[in-house]
Write a structure and sequence with these properties.
Blueprint: H1 12-27, H2 32-39, H3 43-51, H4 58-67, H5 94-101, H6 104-114, H7 119-145
């Protein structure tokens, strides 16, 4: 069951945009402080943008796209047309993806895989990860029975 966020909860679109800002900043190995300096805001404000707790205005998003050297559309990649709160249901995988991609391992993995030009090799990496995940789940299940 999906529930609408409360009046003080961040909007899912703001969270998505903030996550994309964080992803790009981390890929560029830029600190929140450095991004804030270039935007004329504090690193705490950058943190709020990245969490989605503060909305990013159009002119500020334009500046962020310039500083991070990506088109504006980058921040909206992955959103569905007509996104609604129901699209971000609790059982959805998006929170897992956001948590992983915001981790240092997630950024490093995404960066490394994106440098591989061969689609076949990237597909093999995906299959390896799926296989390891199944094996890990089976081991955890067996340990839980003991």
């Amino acid at each position: 069951m999906s529930k609408k966020p409360g009046p003080r909860s961040p909007n899912p679109v703001d969270i998505h945009v903030g996550t994309r800002v964080r992803l790009r900043r981390q890929v560029m190995k830029m600190s929140q402080e450095k991004l804030g300096d270039q935007l004329g805001v504090t690193f705490q404000q950058v943190q709020k943008y990245e969490r989605g707790s503060n909305r990013i205005g159009a002119s500020r998003l334009w500046k962020i796209s310039d500083v991070l050297d990506v088109p504006i559309g980058f921040f909206f990649d992955g959103l569905k047309d007509g996104v609604e709160y129901a699209d971000f249901a609790e059982d959805d995988q998006l929170p897992i993806v956001y948590d992983f991609i915001n981790s240092s391992d997630g950024v490093a993995l995404a960066k490394a895989v994106s440098q591989i030009k061969s689609k076949a090799v990237r597909r093999q990496i995906l299959e390896l990860a799926r296989s390891l995940a199944k094996e890990s789940a089976a081991l955890e299940a067996a340990e839980a029975e003991d």
